[in-house]
Write a structure and sequence with these properties.
Phosphorylase Kinase, domain 1, 11 helices, 4 domains, mainly beta, globular, single chain, Transferase(Phosphotransferase), domain 1, Neuraminidase, 7-stranded antiparallel beta sheet
């Protein structure tokens, strides 16, 4: 039965494409929504279809499809996830996640919300809108009926049916081609009570129209009534255009009142200029509510209020882009912190320190895709001076005004290694003193250094250089000497990512963990009194906050913002030098028959793990804010279609089977078994490891019946194992200590007789699967990363890690001769650290690659406690 008319046309049990209809959920002007079941992925979904007569209206069909394109482009936890689009009997349909809960409109029929609940929901809405605006999408119909309160979960923004794509991002509308019929100037679209003035006039709109609508929704959350709603549409539109919004209830905190009033400014230039600023302001209002007396806007004449509010917000924006901090009770009793922005260019701040005078900031940064340089700036000045030094990163500044520098830094994963050098801040050529150094910090008197380097594959702290103080597993970052010079605090990361713990080691080499369980930890400094170690970390998502831990292990929260903080230094007067970071893993690729790359990123940390043999699919992991406390694995077509999440919690990576129908999935937990997940129809399987642990990337043999993977028995290093899919025990084919095969897309020979391993010295060797002596091939250069074989054992493809642009090279393994096949680099180089992964399809032309982008703004905070 086909959809049509005003009554349900799809009875329970009917099929729409592959989906089994279970029942009608609701109907509206833009379509009917059914509960359905996807037998391929074994999950319930929502299916939205157009009524039959509406499907004959090409304009409505275009608007309907626009909703799918707009929502499908986002992939954000606060936006309804779109899984699929299809056409059945000439009628289009959209498949999305099935939500349980109620709309905000239904909730508001029970009465207004508290100020705290309004802030909580408002922040989630700003996050979803920010994702849309970041992709150039303006919703244009934001209202309580399009906001869904999931049961025990996040707010979801629904119905992008009126959404408009603004080319080039959230720029002012100047008559661009849009997605819906009613988008030309002079035609009104949207829901009257929540329209912006420019929308009500039929003028061109941009992302600031959504900010007005958000203000109207927030006002209704606090009062129970839309601020401009009147008896007729004409009266409602007149109120939007001419009347001031009503005063909020007396109990609403003044800061929250100011946020709502500014969102509802008639002139778009007087509103917040980005929805992220709205989020920061909401956080500020939440942190300040009840702590500081303030004049209520209701007691100020409206004209004076607007002038005062505009001036106040401009000052706040100049200080920190209206950054928001949720602080502990002791902060709430103190004066509000003050902030000063230090840097204004696009790129990455690597390390920053206060100079001994307390008024100069020294920092290492890479701006606009350039090499790392060392800069100085004075507080109160927007200008920075580049020091006449070779390309280098700053490591530390001593109390006597001497810098520790890292010359010729070579990135490797999330760290860099180079030559340690000393240079006076007053000027002069650096003096090289040690190779292979990763981190360094000065003793309080400036007489010696604590350094971190890797020895035998294990990280070691030496203090002073040459005297081992601590040795562990994994890698070490942000080592800092205590104010009394008797201890070193540092972050210890057990795996390849930045999950880790705060560890303290004393001068006798006795180490203890102060704080643990962080899934991301970077940035550390001692408080000047020596009683606490401050650091930036998170236990969920990627939004690191500033925390403090005392020497007994008692933790407390110092400051939190929407987004990520990076702690750099604490001055002797208590001022804090920190970075506000935007971190992304950018996924780029080019599919079969395409002549240009496309951005295939889904959320904020999209890391490619494999490309299908035919080059049409990519597997990638998500490990950032959207993934929460665990990794997640996704499958996406190379044409940019919406990604599908595979059912594996904590998935670290996956590899395609030779026919592309299965993915061998490795998870983060060290003892988790290997999973086999179908990429289409099929049931997931678990492959027991028989006591092995620390599993790394697995790959299929050409026959599809066996796997090779890197793992280790308890107490020994990893080696390569071969295991059949029938459940037999794994069998070791290499000795311990070989490099895991995570850099190889196809480590197995075409006949299945050999596997490829990287020896500890960097030599590529072929190991016979059925026993026998290995056959060494060639030692690769340190920056070489083998991607796949062209002719097994003789010719390979590789790329150069740490180079921008990098290239895909063909290498003759016998002679070492190499030929450049193509250059690859993203179009926007600002903040790009390196291309860290390249995956190449069997045709040698289709590929994907991942690169890490870190954009930083440096600030000084005065008043953190």
């Amino acid at each position: 039965m086909k959809p049509g008319g005003g009554s349900p046309a799809l009875a329970p049990g009917a099929r729409l494409g592959p989906y089994e209809i279970r029942g009608l959920l609701g109907a509206g002007g833009m379509g009917e929504v059914y509960r359905a079941f996807d037998p391929r992925l074994k999950r319930d979904v929502a299916v939205k279809v157009l009524p039959l007569e509406a499907a004959q209206d090409h304009d409505r069909v275009r608007r309907f499809q626009a909703e799918a394109r707009a929502a499908g482009a986002l992939g954000h936890p606060n936006v309804l996830a779109v899984y699929d689009v299809g056409l059945e009997g000439g009628v289009p349909y959209i498949v999305s996640e099935l939500l349980e809960g109620e709309t905000l409109a239904a909730r508001l029929r029970k009465g207004p919300l508290t100020a705290a609940k309004t802030v909580e929901l408002g922040l989630q809405i700003t996050h979803g809108l920010a994702a849309a605006h970041g992709k150039g999408i303006v919703h244009r119909d934001l209202k309580p009926g399009n906001l869904f309160l999931t049961r025990g979960g996040p707010v979801k923004i629904l119905d992008f049916g009126l959404a408009k794509l603004v080319p080039g991002g959230p720029a002012p509308d100047s008559g661009e081609v849009t997605l819906s019929r009613a988008t030309s100037p002079g035609i009104v679209v949207g829901t009257a009570a929540y329209m912006s003035p420019e929308q009500a006039r039929g003028d061109p709109v941009d992302h600031r129209s959504d900010i007005f609508s958000l203000g109207a929704v927030a006002s209704e959350m606090l009062t129970g009534r839309a601020p401009f709603a009147r008896e007729t549409m004409a009266e409602t539109l007149a109120a939007i255009l001419r009347e001031d919004p009503p005063d909020l209830p007396a109990g609403v905190p003044p800061g929250l009142d100011r946020v709502v009033q500014r969102c509802l400014e008639k002139d778009p230039t007087e509103r917040f200029q980005s929805v992220r600023d709205v989020g920061f302001a909401l956080e500020t209002a939440s942190a300040a509510s009840g702590s500081h007396p303030s004049v209520s806007p209701a007691s100020v004449p409206r004209g004076r209020w607007r002038r005062w509010a505009l001036a106040a917000w401009l000052v706040a924006a100049a200080a920190l882009g209206v950054i928001a901090f949720l602080s502990s009770a002791r902060v709430a009793r103190s004066p509000a912190p003050a902030y000063r922005q230090i840097t204004f260019r696009r790129g990455t701040v690597h390390t920053a320190r206060f100079a001994p005078d307390g008024q100069t900031v020294v920092y290492g940064a890479s701006w606009e895709g350039g090499p790392p340089r060392v800069f100085t700036t004075r507080l109160g000045s927007p200008e920075s001076l580049s020091l006449p030094l070779p390309a280098s990163n700053l490591l530390a500044v001593s109390s006597t005004g001497e810098m520790a520098l890292l010359l010729r830094p070579v990135p490797s994963g999330m760290r860099s290694t180079g030559t340690l050098a000393r240079s006076p801040l007053s000027g002069g050529a650096p003096r090289e003193i040690a190779d292979g150094v990763e981190v360094a910090d000065w003793a309080p008197d400036g007489s010696s250094l604590a350094v971190v380097r890797s020895v035998g594959g294990r990280p070691r702290i030496e203090f002073p250089p040459g005297r081992p103080l601590f040795e562990g597993n994994g890698w070490i970052s942000h080592a800092r000497v205590s104010p009394d010079g008797q201890r070193v605090a540092f972050l210890l990361h057990p795996g390849p990512d930045d999950a880790g713990s705060v560890v303290l080691v004393d001068s006798g080499g006795r180490a203890r963990t102060l704080s643990e369980g962080w899934i991301s930890a970077q940035g550390l400094a001692w408080h000047p009194d020596g009683r606490e170690v401050w650091f930036t970390a998170t236990r969920e998502g990627a939004s690191a906050a500033v925390h403090a831990v005392d020497l007994s292990g008692h933790e407390r929260l110092v400051a939190r913002v929407p987004g990520r903080l990076m702690l750099h230094d604490i001055g002797r007067d208590g001022r804090v030098l920190f970075g506000r970071e935007s971190l992304r893993m950018v996924l780029m690729g080019q599919g079969p028959g395409e002549d240009r790359e496309r951005n295939l990123s889904w959320f904020d940390m999209s890391m490619p793990t494999d490309i299908s043999p035919d080059g049409t699919l990519v597997l990638f992991g998500e490990a950032g804010e959207a993934a929460g406390s665990a990794y997640a694995l996704y499958l996406r077509k190379m044409d940019g279609s919406p990604a599908v999440r595979l059912g594996a919690e904590g998935a670290l990576s996956g590899r395609f089977s030779p026919d592309g129908r299965w993915a061998a999935v490795v998870r983060v937990a060290p003892t988790a078994p290997l999973l086999l997940l179908p990429t289409g129809i099929g049931e997931a399987r678990t492959l027991a490891l028989h006591g092995l642990e620390r599993l790394r990337t697995a790959a299929f043999f050409p026959d599809g019946n066996r796997l090779v993977y890197a793992a280790g028995a308890p107490g020994e290093g990893r080696r390569l194992y071969v295991q059949g899919l029938a459940g037999e025990a794994p069998r070791a084919v290499t000795p311990p200590g070989v490099r895991p095969i995570s850099d190889l897309a196809n480590p197995v020979s075409p006949d299945g007789e050999w596997v490829t391993a990287i020896e500890p010295d960097g030599t590529v060797a072929l190991y016979p699967v059925n026993g026998g002596a290995p056959r060494p091939l060639r030692r690769l250069e340190p920056a070489d990363r083998l991607v796949r074989w062209a002719v097994f054992g003789r010719v390979g493809y590789l790329f150069r890690y740490g180079e921008l642009p990098t290239g895909i090279y063909e290498i003759d393994m016998a002679s070492g001769a190499r030929r450049l096949l193509r250059r690859i680099q993203p179009g926007d180089l600002a903040g790009i650290q390196t291309v860290h992964t390249v995956k190449l399809a069997a045709d040698g032309r289709s590929y994907v690659y991942g690169c890490f982008q870190q954009l930083s703004e440096l600030y000084v905070a005065d008043g953190w406690r």
